Amino acid sequence: MSEQAIAARPGKAGAPLLEVINLKKHFPIRKGLLSGTIGNVFAVDGVSFHIDNETLGLVGESGCGKSTVGKTVLKLIEPTSGAIKVRGRDITQLDKSNMRPYRREMQIIFQDPYSSLNPRKSAGGIVGEPLTVHNVASGKEREDRTAALFRRVGLLPEHMAKYPHEFSGGQRQRIGIARALALNPSLIIGDEPVSALDVSIQAQVINLLIDLQEEYKISYLFIAHDLAVVEHISHRIAVMYLGRIVEMTDKKTLFTQALHPYAEALLSAVPIPDPKIKREKRIILTGDVPSPINPPPGCHFHTRCLYLANRCQTEVPRLREITPAHWVACHIHKDKPTWPLAKPSGE
Known about the structure:
The chain is an alpha/beta fold. The chain contains 10 helices and 14 strands. It has helices at residues 3-8, 66-73, 96-103, 123-133, 139-152, 169-181, 199-216, 227-233, 251-257, 261-268; strands spanning 18-31, 36-51, 55-59, 81-86, 89-90, 106-109, 187-191, 219-224, 236-241, 244-250, 277-279, 320-323, 326-328, 342-344.
């Protein structure tokens, strides 16, 4: 299917830009001379969400499956099961040649600006490569478009001749952002794009991403473990734990009315910069995150939950819409005591 053909085919009316339905990615564990499968790593275990003209933040502890979700959505790795739809069109089973038109629709900014750039290519060659691969521009036109991308992300066109080792970490990530912008995508997946940068540089890159979103009408799936960063850039936030989404809502509701015990524990650890506000309760989780090779039955969080009930140990909680646009996967959140996570001192 040609790129012109895919552009001519409209998506389903009212369909979101991206829809992920019960996505699973299990990595087989092989052992022995014949490499027999002895088990699986349940990296992503039934994730569903949608993105449409917004930024969805995806947060959770290291190893919970956030990056695997992003790479599977882009089909950099093939899903085990589930469905991935772009503007209502199912791309889950498409092979590499038929996926090619959709590559222009979705791009990625990688976490490590040091390893995600080819050290043998100049910065201009890296940013301009997608234009050549997808037959968008060549020669002088490619050079002009690449120079414009450099200026837009805060770099000078004179930098196009330099190589990645000649740039700082923040500059390298700007090159990665320019490369992601080259094909004018509708969706960019940021796989912890600022976690390897200094805090002062993080703010600059985040503000750049926000400006680019407003200018180019881009949607983001922003993967991170820093809640402060996610709060700044996201419209909605999904919280992951051990391969599953446990809570998803708009950022204001999550930070003020989190319902899942794991989300509450995460938020209770966020520093509060205002000295007039004190935290009512600091939630300390016991134990370690279970192994994704052998996750607990029922609710994956039940081994560390403060509100454990019998059904939590055997029955998988369904992600339910508790209030409008507030989704929670928890059996007993209505029965547990609630408290404000923070309140002004003296109240």
